Amino acid sequence: MKRFLPGLFLILIVTLPVSAAERRTPIVDAVAKARDAVVNIRTEQIIQRRSSPFFGFGDSIFDQFFQDMLPPRSYKTQSLGSGVIIDAQGHILTNAHVVDKASKIFVALTGQQGELEARLIGADERIDLAVLEIVDKGPHPFLTPARSDDLMLGETVIAIGNPLGLGHSITTGIVSSLQRRVQINDQLSSVFIQTDALINPGNSGGPLINVNGELIGINTAIARQAQGIGFSIPIDTAKRVVNDLIRHGRVRHGFIGIMVGAVSSTFIRSFGEAGVLIDEILPRSPAQQAGLKVADVILSIDGVAVTSPVQYHSLMQTYTPGDSIEVDLLRGKQKVQKRIVLSTLPEGYEMTYTQRVFGFVLKEARSGLVVHSVDKDSPADRVGIRPGDLIAKIDNLEVDKLADYRLAIEGRIGRVPLTFTVIRDNLGYLVELP
């Protein structure tokens, strides 16, 4: 019989290499599907300033004296961002702030040497979306917009950018909110997909994709101070306006035909929810045809809650003529649902709206926009506007011609008050109407 002596047994464990195919995950597949459509965007802006190489101390009296006598000097500034090609023709979807005030736009595609020139097709600063077009004819690699209305909380998403044109910036995260409302300023709020995928200025404008490599959002760097929070414009919002940006260069106003106001605190306490109150319905408007009534309270539009007039107007500016919206209403104590098809603004509506809401009539002259008449006891009459006054700005937006004025009013229909810059005897006054 053999004897086994006690001892140590050395067991050699051999680790076999794992092939790349075995390490391939859905995220790897998604990035591979989308990456060729992601571009770097480089913009140039020419700025002209009057400055002197001899007087540069800022507080020198010589600086102030000679400033207007000096010839303007041109400076070139550059900024970087990202975008995503959405069709073979080379249309690029990005943030409006990425190409703001750009004199020239260049894009760099993955795997291609050098840059291609692009031109701005349309932009809307309120929604922070812009469409560019690559000057060189395609076909170009692209990523077709998918849908964002079926996102799930906790779903894995991927943010891709091309911030330097040298390679991709890829971050992953999960969806933490499907409809995160962020107040941008006093007159604008927006609804975003919120994730914990890192978004920075370099990959702002790039795509947010799901694990299938589908385009579900456009990343935007709106809260740089927020740590670990990323916001993306839902692709369903972008799809509603992209055709207008391409065909018209702007987002047209979808006309519904109502004026809204805030609900009272008593209403909120009684019903446990907020909304916006319908104060007025225009005859023969889409709202009247759909059966809406004065004193109805709008609770949500397409499932997105609206709790203030600012939220209502901000949401409605993402819809264009021909869009169909589903509105949840509270009529008395009964909840009602209505579907409304938006139309284009009636011909001349901006000017009739001006007279009805603010109380004055404008005409175009060589000196600018002149107040032709003022309705008695109207808001304009009560603040002292007179015939012959010039209207120079609306909410700090210059309006020199009637066409400028119509565009400015179109984007502000229903928003009150508006700030008008009125000029009389070479003096400027700011008035709020109504």
What's the SSE blueprint?
Blueprint: H1 20-23, H2 26-34, E1 38-49, H3 61-66, E2 73-85, E3 91-94, E4 104-109, E5 116-124, E6 129-134, E7 156-161, E8 169-185, E9 188-195, E10 207-210, E11 215-220, E12 230-234, H4 235-248, E13 258-262, H5 265-271, E14 276-281, H6 286-290, E15 297-301, E16 304-305, H7 309-316, E17 324-331, E18 334-341, H8 349-357, E19 360-365, E20 368-374, H9 379-383, E21 390-394, E22 397-398, H10 402-410, E23 418-424, E24 427-433
Antiparallel strand pairs: 1-2, 1-4, 2-3, 3-6, 4-5, 5-6, 7-8, 7-10, 8-9, 9-12, 10-11, 11-12, 13-14, 14-15, 15-16, 15-17, 17-18, 19-20, 20-21, 21-22, 21-23, 23-24
Short description:
The chain is built from ten helices and 24 strands.
Structural overview:
The structure is a single chain. The chain is of the alpha+beta class. It folds into four domains: 36-67 and 74-134, Thrombin, subunit H (Beta Barrel); 156-248, Beta Barrel (Thrombin, subunit H), CATH 2.40.10.10; 258-341, Roll (Pdz3 Domain); 349-433, Pdz3 Domain (Roll). It is 18% helix and 38% strand. The protein is built from ten helices and 24 strands. The longest helix is centred in the middle third of the chain and has 14 residues, at 235-248. The radius of gyration is 28 Å and the shape is globular. It starts with 19 loop residues before the first helix and ends with a strand.
